[in-house]
Amino acid sequence: MNAPSLPAGPFRPDLLPDFAPLREVFRRAGYTEAALAKLFQGRNEQNVDLPVALLRTEASTSFNTLARLFALHLVVAEDGLRAAVAPVNLEQLFDTGMIERVPDGVRATAQLSPWQELLLLNDFLPPEGEPMPADFVMSGASPSSASLAALTVRRRVASALDLGTGSGSQALLLAAHAERVVATDANPRALNFTQMNARLNGIENVSVAEGSFFEPVAGERFDLIVCNPPFIVAPPSDLLFQGNSVGRDAVSERIVREAPAYLNEGGYAISLVSWPHGGGEDWPARPRAWASGTGCDAWVLRGSDDDPLSYAADALRQTEPVRSERYATMLSVWLAYYRAQNFVRLAMGAVLLRKRAGVRNWINFDVIPKAMHGNASDQIERIFAAADLLASIDRDEQLFERRLALHTGHVIEQELLVKHDGWGIQAASLAAMHGIGFRATLDGPVLTFLAQCDGTRTLREAITAVAEGFEMDFPQVAEAALPVVRRMLRNGMLVMS
After folding, report:
1. Share of the chain above pLDDT 90, in %
2. Which among 399, 364, 427, 414 is positioned nearest to 494, based on CA atoms?
3. How many CB atoms within 10 Å of residue 182?
4. How far is residue 251's CA from residue 229's CA, in Å, rounded to a whole number?
5. Residues 197, 177: contact at Cβ < 8 Å?
6. How far is CA 304 from the centre of its chain?
7. Closest to 437 in 3D by CA, of 386, 367, 486, 495
8. CB neighbour list of residue 336: distance below 8 Å, 6 or more residues apart
9. Which residue of 122, 239, 334, 483 has the lowest C-beta tally within 10 Å?
10. Which of 430, 409, 435 is nearest to 488 (CA)?
11. Nearest one of 230, 224, 48, 19 to 121, comparing CA atoms
12. What SS3 state is found at 284?
């Protein structure tokens, strides 16, 4: 890891020469996402059922000791911890800053979460009623982190940037397919966490740089940029991980507008974003304005779209116990801010940019389902290739001589209805098995059409087969089929040669 100095923070990763034995301790103890999810029963740190968790971890096992220490933020006996981490020298863990002695035993200085084959340290949430410190480092294993990880293009690249890295989770994932990764943050304490997490996971090709937005990498270019910024639209705050002192959705806008200048040709920038809109069909207006004229093709994905109360409550539940006085107070403050701004709806999603200079760039918009099935990298590149093709075609007739294939990463799901003469199809849909869970409703003619899409037939031949099978005219079938074909191409369901 290329780091000339250690940013200010609780950790000294340089004082433990090799973290591999410690990783083996956690592996051997079964300290996994699944095990902790069972312990927490789907609740977050602030709302965990502690009496139940204590009973589940009362037996003297390595997992229970580590879970009480690093997940539940409880004090454990030093002798018990020494046995749990053997053969690792416990004094070395004190030296690195991961743990500290307190009157009744040993306490962890940070939460340790297993996530996507990584071990990630982040700050414990403060006790109920206490405010977060300004330099608080949020969990890198959050739902937003998972969304960004799923939307990241995972092809091999020479250079990658994790803008606003926090605890470093995205940078560490990038390190697996980028020769060089730069992780930036305005919070020096977050960079200390990033360096510690890199060492903890045995990752050496991540460097850190302190500063706001793109200032730390001025003049540099990257093949891939990812960003999980403080995108939540909220009242001004001193918290660096919220960073919304610029107001409204200015953080999201700035990243989308500025990222293209730091991309190499053909490079991708993926950022989570949020923005207000007036309701109805006007939701694409603001991200369209951000992405226009950037020299990039853009795919804007809208996930959630809520009224102000639902939006504020969902955001605050990530860090506040819902029955606390502080939660109620903050909810009122946020709603007052939204009313003053005349917000009607607030959307969250992502913008995916690809640098392609010297051409007429396209901008597409989709509402995406909540379902995500692993990484969507292949699906995203397939969708961008289809958008390029469709943008280059002036007339629908130009599609007729192209060969179509149904992409193999999809399944057809059918609901059958019992009839007097057997089974009948009540409903059918085509669904993606990997990546973004796009679905398409199917009827009889579309099912027949898809059966023709094996890569050997042209679109004209496939439409002809449907027309003959249903005794319809070719122009009639073509008029109905072409919008379906375009939509399925744009969703990565069909591929065309």
Report:
1. 77
2. 399
3. 23
4. 7
5. no
6. 14
7. 367
8. none
9. 483
10. 430
11. 19
12. coil
- Spatial contact of 19 and 199, defined as CB atoms under 8 Å apart: yes
Task: Give the CA dihedral 321, 325, 327, 331, nearest 10 degrees.
Answer: 160
Task: With a cut of 80, say whether residue 419 has pLDDT above it.
Answer: no
Please tell me the pTM assigned to this model: 0.93
- In 3D, which of 195, 150, 230 has the Cα closest to residue 434? 150
| SS3 label, residue 411 | strand
Instruction: Please check the confidence at residue 355 and state whether its pLDDT lies above 70.
Output: yes
Cβ-Cβ contacts under 8 Å for 254 (sequence gap 6 or more): 213, 246
The predicted pLDDT at position 396 comes to: 79
pLDDT band at 240 (very low <50, low <70, confident <90, very high): low
**Measured between alpha carbons, how far is 100 from 106 in angstroms, rounded to an integer?**
6
Region 169-184 average pLDDT: 98
CA distance 450 to 445: 9
What six digits make up the tokens of 280? 């109805």
Give the span between the Cα atoms of 386 and 491, in whole angstroms: 9
Straight-line distance from the first to the last Cα atom of the chain, in angstroms, rounded to the nearest whole number? 43
Token pair of 74, please? 């409880």
Sheet holding 206-210, edge to edge: 206-210, 178-185, 157-163, 222-227, 263-277, 345-355, 296-306, 363-367
The pLDDT tens digits of the residues spanning 112-151 come to 999 999 999 999 988 877 888 889 999 998 899 999 999 9
Residue 325 tokens read as 């006085």
d(CA 386, CA 382): 6
246 pLDDT above the threshold of 80: no
What are residue 454's phi and psi, to 5 degrees?
A: -115, 10
Domains of the chain: 13-116 (no CATH), 143-374 (3.40.50.150), 396-496 (1.10.10.1150)
| CA–CA distance, 362 with 300 (Å, rounded to integer) | 11
Per the CB < 8 A criterion, the answer to whether 351 and 273 are in contact is yes
User: How far is residue 224's CA from residue 244's CA, in Å, rounded to a whole number?
Assistant: 25
Q: Where residue 1 falls among pLDDT bands split at 50, 70, 90?
A: very low
d(CA 101, CA 94): 8
Q: What single letter denotes the amino acid at residue 276?
A: P
Is the CB of residue 403 less than 8 Å from the CB of residue 496?
yes
